[in-house]
Amino acid sequence: MPLRFSLSSLIVLCSFTAILAHNNEDPTIKTMEDFSGYPIHESHSHLSSLSVDAQSLQKQIDELSSFSDTPAPSVTRVLYTEKDVLARRFIKNLMGLSGLSVREDAVGNIFGRWEGSNPELSAVATGSHIDAIPYSGKYDGVVGVLGAIEAINVLTRSGFKPKRSLEVIMFTSEEPTRFGISCLGSRLMAGSETLAEALKTTVDGQNISFLDASQSAGYTKDHNDISSVFLKKGSYSAFVELHIEQGPLLEEEGIPIGIVTAIAAPASIKVEFQGNGGHAGAVLMPNRNDAGLAAAELALAVERHVLESGSIDTVGTVGILELHPGAINSIPSKSHLEIDTRDIDEERRNTVIEKIHQSAISIARKRRVTLSEFKIVNQDPPALSEKSILDAMVASSKELNLTHKLMISRAYHDSLFMARISPMGMIFIPCYKGYSHKPEEYSSTEDISNGVKVLALTLAKLSLQ
Ligand code: GLV
Ligand code: MN
Ligand code: MN
């Protein structure tokens, strides 16, 4: 028997109190108005089945984690690989089972739609990603996709009928693992001409082009199709993403729901140094121009420049450092670094980028190597959540008797780009010790259920607006 966390008792309790406080009406008569705050037709007024099927949601999370290129508990699921294609099939199947009509765009963003009673109105959307960086965990992104499908099930079981259509979106490649660009699907949906143009020539680490990889997964091979992914501003009246916090605050403070007010501004940079290489025994130290040591110096400079900002909110990471030819007895002739830097203050983040650039130039000069590439791959502004969505999320948490905390997202999300074309908001749930992007990532079934409840209520409210 699936373990069901009944929402009805909570909602009855909240409504009961509210009704008693307001007009002393019979608290046993419940309508959707009680929990949504917005009027709804009487025939949709049954709350008895409003519940999260926590056990099957957990089963789906576990099953999805088995589509991985590395052994459990780690998860590795990279864009357009065989495992990604299997995982996509799994998601489309679940969407279908939930009664959603499924479509995919040219790059594989997947949409599951529940048609509202007024098709003239723009839809309310929710969703996240299921790609997983190498050796990561099973909750990042996944909670926002499987949880969104479950939120639809919650609403269906409750007898709710949406006025605005509801859409669940699974975004293509939120992680930059394969082609070096984050939020590929949502960036395109938000109309990034720069990315569309770059994808003409983008290749992965094995020199496979984006378009060949896309075709191998069943999506477009024609560059001209890419602009069909762009969506008009206003295509959605709201976008809400459910996600694990990826930080420790909610767990430390014992708060079940985080309501995101803003997403920090991310940037990423690719750098390459070239030297002459040579024999590790025969070339004497004064005669070397070691591209590896230039990379090492730059990595330390990144840390220094980030710390110089004086703010705890400025961060920088050298997550990729490759040396060529990669032999113990060969002086590196080429080095490749990829640098990730973020801040909630865009200008301060830009100052760090500028300092990193100056350091790369001076290190190259000092070490007599060539700075053959300094490429800012992306330098995105931060995004703010929309007040109307914040209000809906806060009201939902309160009605569910779940305490919440307003907070910043230091990680980026597809919401950062959806905010360019739609009012946006995010719901966070606690995760164990704030762990993420590693196999120890974990959120409890109860915390996930709470997030799904808040998401379902928020979607219901926004659908009726
Ligand atoms: C998303 O995965 C991020 O790196 O913030
Ligand atoms: Mn991630
Ligand atoms: Mn994520």
Automatic annotation (TrEMBL):
It catalyses: (S)-ureidoglycolate + H2O + 2 H(+) = glyoxylate + 2 NH4(+) + CO2. It is an enzyme of class 3 (hydrolase). One of its GO terms (cellular component) is endoplasmic reticulum. Residues 1-21 form the signal peptide. It comes from the Eukaryota. GO terms for molecular function: hydrolase activity, acting on carbon-nitrogen (but not peptide) bonds, in linear amidines; metal ion binding; ureidoglycolate hydrolase activity. Its main location: endoplasmic reticulum. One of its GO terms (biological process) is ureide catabolic process. Keywords: Endoplasmic reticulum, Hydrolase, Manganese, Metal-binding, Purine metabolism, Signal. Its cofactor is Ni(2+); Co(2+); Mn(2+). Pathway: Nitrogen metabolism; (S)-allantoin degradation; glyoxylate from (S)-ureidoglycolate: step 1/1. Homodimer. This is Ureidoglycolate hydrolase. It comes from Rosa chinensis.
